[in-house]
Amino acid sequence: MQTTLPTITPMLTPVLAEAQILMSIAKPIMLVALFIPYMRFVAKFELDARRFTLPVLKLNALFLGVALVGLAVIVLIPIFWIGWFVAMLMFAGTMYGYWKYRDQKVPPGEKFKFATDTFSKAMDARRKAAAEKGAQVIFLTAKGERQPVPQKEDPALLVYLALEQALLGPLESRATRVDLASSQQGVTISMTVDGVRAKRDPLPPDTGNAAIDLLKKVSGLDPADRRRRQQGLCRMESPVGKTELTVTTSGSSSGQTIRIDFDRASRFGKSIDTLGLAPAQLEALRVFEKPERRKGVIIVTTPSGQGLTTLAYALIGRHDAYTSNVKTLEREVQHRVEGVDHKKFEPEPGVEDFGAMLTKIIRRDPDVVLCGDISEPGTAKAAALMGMESPLVYVLIPADSMATAIAMWMQAVGDPKMATRCLSAVVQQRVMRTLCPNCKSPFTPAPEQAKKLGIPSGKEVQLFRPSGKVQVKNRIEDCPVCQGSSYFGQAGVFEVMSLDDEARRLLSENDFRTAYARAVREQKMMQLQEAALVKVRDGDTSLEEVQRIFAPKQAAGAPKPAAAPKA
Fold it and tell me: What is the pTM of this model?
């Protein structure tokens, strides 16, 4: 027995060492924590190797061999922790070696990236998401790229929130436009709702100018250029929905101004039948759709900011662009009518001014032409010469009255006889607010009011006045539809004056009053105020709104008249 023990002991040493390992609870756990992740990585590496046609069999043999050697190292090294650490280094070295070998064989876009890069990007994404949750508005460039929302500790967050409130408040109030104007005292803010401007709280100079620069940057404009006129587009996502912003900036020595139009393109493209023209007025305009009547000049006029471009697009849109050749020349193409050849004025070699470009277009035999501007010398004369026969030329003139528009046209042409000989018609529009259908208040007009409205004596009718209030249970609250403004939306009122030879003769002699009275008497032309009162009678608007629209403008510094009592 004594002679056999030394022989058996060396054979049992590895078994005893393994038994000692298995007697510890921590050591099997450490083995599992080492081998399971390694084998999972090996399985992923195999799929990756097959994807890029790498030598899978050789790599599998290598991975398995390293695993067996690592296990042997742990078992054979008497101190477990040293063996475990050596095996870990072997496994990590194998994975690192595969990484380097693989990245040399695959395309650049398929290379492995550090986990720290992925983690960092994930953290950035989480921070951005958290910042966006704290903001009510997300700005996007015209290409759809999101403007990052500053973090809470970033001073730029104050600027972002200032711009957010400058736009979100008016948008929630149904504004179609916001104007910002900077000066040394600060940045003033005004919004336009249903054609009426209202002031909002101003911004401090530094914050306000930084907000303007931020919006210019998102819109693709140059924030450093504070003088030149620039125009760009961007979008915003808010609780109101997705909104497109048309941003127009300009500047002077006193500061820069910025105009923001909300969803401007959606306000164009309206049908002529939806603008508010009376049936007789529509009929007078439809005459010019006939091929034999497509000649002459039609002056289209509205006061500034009263829908001149919308009206112009509606007028050319009623011509069938597939059976007639319709062209436009504009300073800025704000909407494209289907089938119409829109041309934005840009000087070309040999054609340096607007009038020459208009002549070039008319020489291409169009049936209908829209001339968007006659401010340059020679433009009106070119339109008048071509309008003697064909084509039919619509000329846009911003003016406060029909008489003013005709006078401006004659002055621009330079020859009263030429200016009037080509005239076929004049269309004037005013835009007025329509009563909110949810809160308008009915009343019976007094006899004198009924007489002014053309209501027969003794006939009972119901008119409506602005309210802005509704009753909720026992409380009187602001109307949720119009937000207490009493009005919701706008509609046009029109005059359409068709011209014959006698009317043209009177106009050439500067006798607009007689020509106008003759149109009212002989052609039964509906006058502008008459058209407005018809809308009052139909319940579309109020007497107060008519008074506002047609009240004479006050000279600067003149006292305001007392408010008219409610009917």
Answer: 0.71
Residues 506 and 514 sit within 8 Å (Cβ to Cβ) = yes
pLDDT single digits (tens) 157-205? 889 999 999 999 999 999 999 999 998 889 999 999 999 999 999 999 9
N-term to C-term CA, the chain: 131
The answer to whether position 178 is within a domain reads: yes
Contacts of 114 (CB under 8 A, 6+ apart): none
pLDDT at residue 125 tops 60 = no
Query: How many folded domains does the chain comprise?
Result: 3
Q: Do 382 and 429 fall within a single domain?
A: yes
DSSP state of 559: P
- The bridge status of strand 392-398 relative to strand 368-371 is parallel
Burial class (CB in 10 A: 0-12, 13-18, 19+), 123: exposed
Q: Are residues 280 and 373 in the same domain?
A: yes
Distance set, CA 139 to CA 153, 177, 236 (Å): 20, 17, 4
CB neighbours of 312 closer than 8 A, spacing ≥ 6?
300, 370, 372, 394, 396
Residue 113, C-beta contacts closer than 8 angstroms, at least 6 positions apart? none
